[in-house]
Design goal:
Blueprint (H helix, E strand, L loop, with lengths): L2 H7 L14 E10 L4 E2 L3 E6 L3 E7 L12 H7 L3 E10 L2 E9 L11 E5 L2 E5 L5 E7 L4 E15 L5 E2 L3 E6 L2 E6 L4 H9 L4 H7 L4 H4 L3 E7 L5 E6 L14 E4 L4 E8 L2 E18 L8 H9 L1 H4 L9
Antiparallel strand pairs: 1-2, 1-3, 1-9, 3-4, 4-5, 5-6, 7-8, 8-9, 10-11, 10-12, 10-18, 12-13, 13-14, 14-15, 16-17, 17-18
Length: 313
């Protein structure tokens, strides 16, 4: 079965959740730092389900390195960023825990202060170090809301099971997937010792393949309904289609089992269900409940709306 077919017949909503206005696919318009500098060029994507976040940060396509055996390319690849994590909303602050990251250290240690108005979600670092302007990518329409966390991956031919971490989030016409490294013992050791990815790939060239064996992709739905990868840690994957079929639903275990062909092998993946909703409404507007403010907007519309338009990231 496909994920859409399962979602239509097996509605499953997480018991925990972030605020509704935080759910969706976002792209960063800018980040401004305390020193007065602003970055509007880095490609940054944030996909949010009810309990999981997927994040991908890349340079402009012309500046994105392509992985080769050359040491400069390897070092450049180690500056990219992609991850997934569990989201925790507490005391009006958003923080992240667990999950898996391409980087071995946490590049963003502060929690997030968030406020959304319209299609704009603003994120402040509590320290005042930076502020980020995020824009909702979803149109005002209903679509899938799915959040899955990878529990394991088995090679069907050999029966070997890898405790591989990963996540899949679908926000309407956008989807994100993370597949973590399979060498978990080494990764745990590097993280525990406070090592940085660029440092380890330089010091341990024999482990480069294992270190860079980490995927994060952002895909958009094509006219035929399939999701085509538009942004990826590995630029060679751009143009690939994500596989959202071959699923069976294990209701008693609250899991999905997926059989698929992947990189020349038949694999079986076990996904824990966070949320599985066939018709979630993604809205680019936010409510204004104060009548006097609505009256103010209408009365001042000739000047307030002189140049208003929908602004994307």
């Amino acid at each position: 079965m496909t994920l859409l077919e399962i979602a239509k017949t097996h509605l499953s909503t997480a018991s925990y959740s972030v605020p509704e206005w935080m759910i969706g696919a976002f792209s960063r318009r800018s980040i401004s730092f305390a020193d007065g500098l602003t970055d509007t060029d880095t490609r940054v994507f944030w996909l949010q389900s009810r309990g999981l976040t997927i994040d991908l940060r890349l340079p402009l396509p012309r500046d994105q390195p392509v992985l080769t055996d050359h040491s400069d390319a390897i070092r450049a690849m180690s500056d990219l960023e992609g991850w997934y994590a569990h989201t925790c909303w507490e005391n009006n602050l958003l923080s992240w825990c667990n999950g898996a990251s391409y980087q071995l250290h946490n590049r963003w240690p502060e929690p997030a202060q968030l406020r959304r108005v319209g299609n704009c979600m603003v994120e402040f670092a509590p320290s005042g170090a930076y502020v980020e302007d995020w824009r909702l990518l979803n149109e005002s329409s209903k679509g899938l809301l799915i959040g899955l966390e990878l529990e394991s991956e088995m090679d069907v031919a050999t029966g070997v099971v890898s405790a591989r971490q990963g996540a899949l989030i679908i926000n309407g016409e956008y989807a994100g997937m993370v597949l973590g490294r399979t060498h978990t013992t080494l990764e745990t050791e590097w993280i525990a010792n406070g090592r940085r990815l660029k440092e380890v790939v330089t010091a341990q060239p024999d482990h480069v393949e294992a270190l860079l064996n980490f995927q994060t992709v952002i895909a958009k739905q094509a006219a035929d309904g399939r999701y085509c990868v538009e942004h990826s840690l590995d630029s060679n994957r751009v143009g690939d289609f994500l596989a959202f079929d071959g699923f069976t639903y294990a209701k008693s275990e609250r899991k999905l089992i997926q059989r698929l062909h992947y990189e020349g092998r038949e694999v079986e993946r076990v996904w824990r269900i966070g949320c599985l909703e066939a018709s979630y409404e993604y809205c680019r507007s936010t409510p204004v409940n104060n009548p006097s403010i609505r009256q103010w907007r209408a009365g001042e519309s000739p000047t307030l709306d002189r140049y208003t338009r929908a602004v994307e990231a």
